[in-house]
Amino acid sequence: MILYEYPFNERIRTYLRLEHLFVRLFELVAREHPIDHHYALTTIFEVMDVGARADLKSDVLKDLDKQKHILDGYRGNPAIAEGVLDEVIGQLDACFQALSGLPGRAGQSLTDNDWLMSIRSRVGIPGGTCEFDLPAYYAWQHQPSSQRKEDLARWASTLTPLAESIALLLKMLRDSGSPQKMMAVNGQFQQNLPQTRTFQLLRLALDPATGLVPEISGNRLMVSIRLMRQGEDDRLHISNEETGFELALCS
Hints:
- The structure is a single chain.
- This protein has two domains: 9-172, YacF-like (Orthogonal Bundle), CATH 1.10.3900; 177-250, YacF-like (Sandwich).
- 47% of the residues lie in helices and 20% in strands.
- The protein contains eight helices and eight strands, in the order βααααααααβββββββ.
- It has helices spanning 10-29, 34-50, 56-72, 82-100, 114-123, 135-140, 145-156, 160-175, and strands at residues 2-7, 180-184, 188-192, 201-206, 212-218, 222-230, 236-238, 243-250.
- It has a four-stranded antiparallel β-sheet. Strands 3, 5, 6 and 7 form a four-stranded antiparallel β-sheet that branches.
- The two termini are 22 Å apart.
């Protein structure tokens, strides 16, 4: 199954973008080739760009604190395992302390590194990191992979508290939704959302064997899904088939 996710608000949209970047970053850092490490470095810069939003850190800290208070309300409930509850609350506390201890915005400490910032100013220019533009960076790419990994890990460590906090919040959000089997008729599906709950994330699982791609739109009132098929003209065309899929709404 291919899992597609659709955020219902800008805050979750930002979290998903950062999660995507962090997964890419840590995968690239673990590799050996200089090209992989070049893109690991550009990914760090992308995280810094997304994290430059003034209220991002505050939003994450508020969400961590909110989740902790919600879980504290389950104490004494006989249906809840106290050990598991304490473990999750401990994870929330650890993430809160680590993130709140970082100065400023995501990666702000890296802005004091003139060498890194000289590279950042050039990566947006096509071919802007050639050896004649950035000879020091070119020389760094010829360092042993172990040295490059050590440098990248050191720079990425300034972003790790944010990565761990967002990973925990998204895991808890995803766990709040239960997948339900649905059917799209003539390639289309609509569902009104109950007004008693505020959903933040939609998760749609679709069998890749169908060859279909979902186009999702939604708001607090309704969800609309169109299943599309890529034609020989490389464009997406709406399917006219009845297709089953799994849908989870997470709050």
